[in-house]
Structures are given as C-alpha cells and as structure tokens.
Amino acid sequence: MSVRDRTRRRDGLASAMAAGVLATVVMSEYMLSGESREAIGEAPPARIVRRFRPGWSDERISAAATALHLGIGASGGALAVLLRLTGLPTSLAAGVGLWALGYEVVAPALGVLPPAHRDTERARHLFRAHLVFGVTLALLRRVR
C-alpha cells in the first residue's frame, strides 16, 4: 500500500471518528430532552464511571462519562466506515448494533443496568437515541 493510500485511509478513518463524535453529541441532546431524560435517568456512561470510581465528585464523573461516551461514538463511527456501513439503512443498523451490544451485553455485564429486554421503558428511549445516532452518522458521512 502506498503512502498516499495509507494517508487517504487514515484521513477517512479520522473523518469517520469525528462523525461518530458529532452523532454522539446529537444523540446525547436527544437523550437529555423531555421524557427521554426522565425515562433514562442517569446516563449509562455516568453509571459506568460511578461504578468503577465511586469516590469521584459529580463533576469528575460527568467529565469522564462525557469522554467515555464520545470515545464510544468515535469508535462506532470508525467501525461503521471500516465495515462500509455508510448509507442510511446500514448506519441505522450500526446504531442499533451499538445499542444492542451496550444494553444487552456490556451494561448488564458491568452491573450498571439490567438487560434491555428487562428494562423496556429506558431501553425504548435508548433505542430511539441510537436511531438518532445512526441517522446523524449517515448524514454526516454523506456530507463529507
């Protein structure tokens, strides 16, 4: 692979990660709005940080949770482009996949939330939020 090809691949991956971060910001705004905020309660990334750093201040937990959430979003954007999930249907699938992995596997394994299928009200709002992530990711990838 030539230097030019490696540079193009790196730039494409960086662009996808930035799109994932921006899609996470949009998704987070949805999660913090109206009835979603009430149904979700403390955001799952904050629950994770609090679980592993129980003595931290609320400000420190909030900062670490924000970094964690944006990092997950960046990873989701990168994974989506590596798997060539760049159109709307496949970006929606990426959002749903992140939701399923996070709320059926990771959060329950960490002991911060019950599995989504047992936590229907919160899971429904988190599912919608991840659809927002997928739509936003598709739109951002299309604009580049």
What does this structure look like?
The longest helix is centred in the N-terminal third of the chain and has 29 residues, at 3-31. It contains six helices and no strands. It has helices spanning 3-31, 34-40, 44-52, 58-82, 88-110, 120-143. 32% of the residues are buried. The protein is mostly helical. The mean pLDDT is 91.
Report the C-alpha radius of gyration, rounded: 16 Å
Which residue ranges are poorly predicted, with pLDDT under 50 across at least 5 consecutive positions? none
Estimated structural class? mainly alpha
| Percent of residues in beta strands | under 5%
In short:
The chain has 144 residues and is an all-alpha fold. The protein has helices at 3-31, 34-40, 44-52, 58-82, 88-110, 120-143.
Q: How is this fold's topology laid out?
A:
Blueprint: H1 3-31, H2 34-40, H3 44-52, H4 58-82, H5 88-110, H6 120-143
Helix pairs in contact: 1-4, 1-6, 3-4, 5-6
